[in-house]
## 1
Amino acid sequence: MNGFVIEFDHVQLAAPPGCEAEARRFFGELLGLTELEKPSGLSNRGGCWFQVGARQLHIGVEEPFQPARKAHPAFRVIEIDRLAAKLEASGVTCKWDYELPTVRRFFADDPWGNRLEFVQPVA
């Protein structure tokens, strides 16, 4: 082994205070992620956690809040066209990018303006 880091445990996105209902709607209902119960010692900090495959996505409260416009997580998805249509039907703008030949991908913002990437490998 050449290094100490072997994989990601979780990714955290920042959100403004009072973000929980919108996080549940966007990440839970629209993306279909399962919400996880936060540990009791952290539950009073606000935000919420979701399961993403074998990893977790943490939505954490930050004040003052400023969205990440360049830094972003990339979610590997199935049925990318169907997901984009679902997001757009709910008012989320999906910006397709065709620069990588190995994946189909688009970018979209979460409810607070954080950049998100969605990718599906090309068969």
## 2
Amino acid sequence: MYWPRWYVLNRKRVVPMLLLIALFLVLLWGAVSLACNLAMSDSDLFNRALSNTLACSSYRYSVEVRQGGRDMVTLVEGERVEPDRVHIKGAMQKSQMEFVQIGDTTYMKDPWSDRWFTLKGNSLAQSELFMTEFNPLGLFKFKDVPVIKKTGSDKLEGVKTEVLELRPIVANPFLEVKYTDFKFKVWVDPGQKLIRKAEMAAHMPGGGEGMVVVMKFWGFNEKIRIDPPRGNIVDGR
């Protein structure tokens, strides 16, 4: 390979200079990224993270629901492929359960056998009882969020996150009727602008402890395949 004479004569100077230029560009990129993150308001950070999370084609999640601040109601893990494929497995009311939703058909596994029951229509997945388990991001439907503020930072699975506190006005008829005084804590990955974890706490109308929901999200945009179950399937209509 032929090298220009100027390079041969000055390579001891050129190589360090090129390295310095490369280092400068890396530092400049980091400074610009940091400045953009610092300039982003708490509200902008949350809205961007929520928008990006909702736009994901797939994700995995866990949901823990407690009533009265103590009693475990739900503990499930799930995976969702937009727009209408969900697989959840875990415990509800201390009973083991497993569901697969494909379009407008929901498959429910009999906890005492290997049989699956089919339920036509989307009524189960949209019911008040299962709405959080099938679509945890549905809890982020708000009429308005008057208060959004950063309260600190935390590490989740090795990822540094920004912790935001929200005091929203929810847009969920079921929650509006049964609970009041909603508070959210949201763990946002500031790099990818995604929601990694969220907690919702609400009180009963009389002021007593109500419902606490803890959600975790991962596996964003991974290739997840959710198919109808195989085996003994019974029409449950």
